[in-house]
Write a structure and sequence with these properties.
This protein is of the alpha+beta class and 355 residues long. Helix content is 43%, strand content 9%. It contains 10 helices and 10 strands. α1 packs across α2, α3 (99-119) crosses α4 (168-182) and α8 packs across α9. The longest helix has 27 residues, at 29-55.
Length: 355
């Protein structure tokens, strides 16, 4: 049984703290100042999340969307830090001149569509929850996040990071934190936190693949491709295909993600390395998806979705707990065959025990 004890929204960002920490110490103020401001804002938001956990969240607004229909609202924060900002586009409104608004609106829709059409899930909570997003948040804000209630996007600083609405997988990643919040509610620390991050990378990647009509073989398996500015030596924030290869830059440092348990990082930073060690389950999913071939959101994605939403995944789950459940889910849905074999092989390759 799931022992979550209720929904506990956490503050989840797409850019890991260790990346911003390094930038904040750079001698070039054009790089350091936006990173410092972003870290300060993120710290405030984490505190707000902790207070919400203690005193309770405000009562949720009843869903207004018709069953199976998205209800999107995009706000312009006007480079301020008050949420949500001014409403600039509602569900069914025609595109405006602001490309950032249009991308946010489209990304919310792409995420809604993947979950509905592939898994029969009606929005983030499964009950038609309206999807809200604020763009142009803060001054050169270098992040995007799900705050337990809505999406928020910065414009980036133009030096290291570009507009955070550009990659659709970033939008899908953050909204998937909402799906996890309403299902397994994985604790945001250590291996359970790394699984939380990995679920968002997995479904963020699947949303991009679904939007582009790609097979597992055609996909780039990058998270945040197009987010890094031209001066950066890198291709994305993370690589599910080759963890540790996404960037190697004088300002950002080298991508620290391991792809197997042999490289598991033990650290007290980043909630126990949730953005770092997520490379291990990320790589396992990549191996399953490419071994099975075809469209990754179908068989591979279905197995992962079954575990996330099945009620057996404990909020404090380890990689081994999750791996065992994926083996059981593959057997339950597809019986003995290629699916279960692919799952067993993948976890063995990344060094996670399934028995």
């Amino acid at each position: 049984m799931n022992t979550n004890g209720g929904f506990g929204p956490v503050f989840c960002t797409i850019v890991p703290p260790h990346v911003l920490d390094r930038l904040a110490q750079h001698e070039d103020t054009a790089l350091a100042t936006p990173a410092r401001r972003t870290l300060e804002r993120d710290a405030m938001e984490r505190t707000r999340r902790r207070l919400t956990t203690v005193i309770g969240a405000p009562a949720a607004t009843a869903p207004t969307a018709a069953t199976g229909t998205p209800q999107r609202t995009v706000y312009d924060a006007g480079h301020q830090q008050s949420l949500p900002g001014t409403k600039v586009r509602g569900e069914g409104d025609q595109p405006g001149e602001d490309a950032t608004v249009n991308r946010a609106y489209a990304g919310l829709g792409a995420t809604f569509e993947l979950y509905l059409r592939a898994y029969g899930r009606d929005s983030v909570d499964g009950k038609g929850l309206p999807l809200e997003a604020s763009v142009h948040f803060g001054e050169n804000y270098d992040n995007a996040f799900w705050n337990g209630e809505q999406m928020v996007f910065g414009d980036g600083d133009g030096e290291v990071f570009l507009d955070f609405t550009t990659p659709v997988d970033v939008i899908g990643h953050e909204l998937t934190h909402g799906v996890t919040q309403y299902t397994a509610n994985l604790a945001y620390f250590g291996q359970s936190g790394a699984l939380n991050e990995s679920m968002s990378d997995v479904f963020g990647s699947l949303i991009k693949q679904y939007t582009l009509g790609q097979t597992a073989a055609e996909a780039d398996w990058l998270i945040g491709a197009g987010l890094l500015a031209p001066r950066v030596h890198g291709k994305a924030l993370r690589s599910m295909k080759e963890p540790g290869s996404a960037y190697d830059d004088p300002a950002l440092g080298k991508d620290p993600q391991p792809g197997t348990m042999a490289g598991y990082v033990r650290t007290g930073q980043d909630n126990g390395g949730v953005h770092i060690n997520s490379g291990i389950p990320n790589h396992a999913f990549y191996l399953v998806a490419t071994e099975l071939g075809g469209r990754a959101w179908e068989r591979a994605g279905q197995i992962w979705y079954d575990v996330l939403t099945g009620g057996e995944l404990d909020s404090q789950a380890t990689f081994a707990d999750f791996a065992r459940l994926t083996v059981a889910a593959a057997l339950s849905r597809y019986h003995e065959g290629a699916e279960q074999e692919a799952v067993l092989k993948a976890w063995e390759q990344v060094g996670v025990r399934t028995s």
